[in-house]
């Protein structure tokens, strides 16, 4: 399988994931032009895209969806709640109804040779999901935009090869920062975003002997920075009651404005 972050952060998210035969996009939260350029950098094209998986309807995940779906006629996979919320977003423009494919949390489906498992997450959106993709014995997960995690999430992320996991904010930076009080409470709440510390703790619970790489994503521009997220997550893993340590596998941080390295496994 292959995976690449075209963009990841509070200002826009777009992830490429593929097998040898099937190309998928997870979210389309940047401009169509940026998505096209990003795919071009890794030798791909929207004309080869089998589907776009949408986690939820917030603008940093769908802002470019209308443009690319209309231009290329790509099927859109989203929960009923997410689809209905997208159709109410005037900023994305009209999307032909026949492009939507309704999905349900915990109900596997296939696109080409990839099996997709939608995972229900806690976020202030209509019906948000994360995704685990499997092809044969290979698997990857994209888990962002969750205010908390529990045993259900940990179970769904077991035995992955690669995981892109949210490390949205540093709690202290957020608390002393310029955001208004209500926004700070939203981000810190159960339907907000995962902090660096919680990201490290969750990661420590899903490590196993075959784990290949962790990618930290969806960093806040105002309340985090790459080195802090990286070091905090590593520290949490080293402190966890686990046989694994942060040095046992690669950890990288997805770029906000740049295409990250294409991972093949």
Detailed description of the structure:
By secondary structure, this protein is an alpha/beta fold. The protein has helices at 32-41, 59-62, 65-72, 80-87, 151-156, 171-176, 181-188, 196-206, 226-239, and strands at residues 2-7, 14-18, 23-26, 49-53, 76-79, 100-103, 109-111, 114-120, 129-135, 138-143, 162-166, 213-217, 251-253, 263-264. Strand 7 and strand 8 form a beta hairpin. The longest helix is centred in the last third of the chain and has 14 residues, at 226-239. The radius of gyration is 17 Å and the shape is globular. The N and C termini lie close together (6 Å).
Provide the fold topology.
Blueprint: E1 2-7, E2 14-18, E3 23-26, H1 32-41, E4 49-53, H2 59-62, H3 65-72, E5 76-79, H4 80-87, E6 100-103, E7 109-111, E8 114-120, E9 129-135, E10 138-143, H5 151-156, E11 162-166, H6 171-176, H7 181-188, H8 196-206, E12 213-217, H9 226-239, E13 251-253, E14 263-264
Parallel strand pairs: 3-4, 4-5, 5-6, 10-11, 11-12, 12-13
Antiparallel strand pairs: 1-2, 1-14, 2-3, 7-8, 8-9, 9-10
Task: Please trace the helix and strand order, writing H or E for each element.
Answer: EEEHEHHEHEEEEEHEHHHEHEE
Instruction: Compute the average pLDDT.
Output: 97
- The coarse overall form would be globular
State the secondary-structure class.
alpha/beta
Give a quick account of the main beta sheet: strands, pairing sense, barrel closure: 7 strands, mixed
Oligomer: single chain
Q: Which spans of ≥5 residues are poorly predicted at pLDDT below 50?
A: none
Euclidean distance between termini CA atoms: 6 Å
Strand % is 15-25%
The count of strands amounts to 14
């Amino acid at each position: 399988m292959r995976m690449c972050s075209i963009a990841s952060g509070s200002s826009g998210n777009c992830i490429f994931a593929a097998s040898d035969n099937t190309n998928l996009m997870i979210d389309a939260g940047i401009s169509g032009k940026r998505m096209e350029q990003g795919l071009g950098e890794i030798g791909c094209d929207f004309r080869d895209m089998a589907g776009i998986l949408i986690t939820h309807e917030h603008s940093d995940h769908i802002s470019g969806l209308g443009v690319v779906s209309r231009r290329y006629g790509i099927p859109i996979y989203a929960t009923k709640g997410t689809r209905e919320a997208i159709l109410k977003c005037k900023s994305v423009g009209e999307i032909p109804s026949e492009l939507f494919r309704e999905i349900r949390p915990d109900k596997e489906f296939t696109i080409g040779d990839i099996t997709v498992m939608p995972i229900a997450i806690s976020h202030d959106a209509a019906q948000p999901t994360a995704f685990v993709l499997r092809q044969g014995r290979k698997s990857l997960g994209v888990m962002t935009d969750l205010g908390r995690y529990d045993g259900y999430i940990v179970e769904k992320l077991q035995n992955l090869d690669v995981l892109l996991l949210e490390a949205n904010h540093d709690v202290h930076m957020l608390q002393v920062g310029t955001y208004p009080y209500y926004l700070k409470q939203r981000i810190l709440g159960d339907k907000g975003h995962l902090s660096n510390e919680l990201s490290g703790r969750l990661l420590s619970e899903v490590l196993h002997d075959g784990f290949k790489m962790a990618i930290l994503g969806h960093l806040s521009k105002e309340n985090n920075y790459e080195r802090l997220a990286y070091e905090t997550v590593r520290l949490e893993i080293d402190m966890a009651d686990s046989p694994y340590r942060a040095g046992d596998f690669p950890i990288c941080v997805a770029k906000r404005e740049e295409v990250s390295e294409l991972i093949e496994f």
